[in-house]
Structure of Ribonuclease P protein component:
Amino acid sequence: MRLPSNLRMKLARDFACVKTQGASQAGKYLVLGALRVEALEEFQFGLITGGRLGNAVVRNRIRRLLREIIRAHRAEVLPGWQMVIIARWRAPQATLQELENDWLRLARRMSLLKPKTSAPPRSPAP
């Protein structure tokens, strides 16, 4: 299932606002920048994969992996946030699981995810 296009940040001024007015956290493979925008009904994200990562094949692979991570955790992200995900130089060597763990850690640190609801206690089996 594809992500709807309204979730993507497309304008350079949106990226610049997140950079200048937002906060950021760096992980091993990613840098996550975020800015609270009350007018958003859902969230928006943008991806940055610079030329230092490798050729177009490598950069596109990283973008596909990052979009998959966003798609998988879309329901957990709080509405009203613009986030920019920047792939660091180590990202091409990372697996999907490593990138996902790094993104989740950064998103939790920045309070971008809904709090986990604890499961109701199970009754002991007779």
Observations:
- The first strand starts at residue 23 and ends at 26.
- The helical segments are 12-21, 56-72, 96-109.
- Residues 56-72 form the longest helix (17 residues).
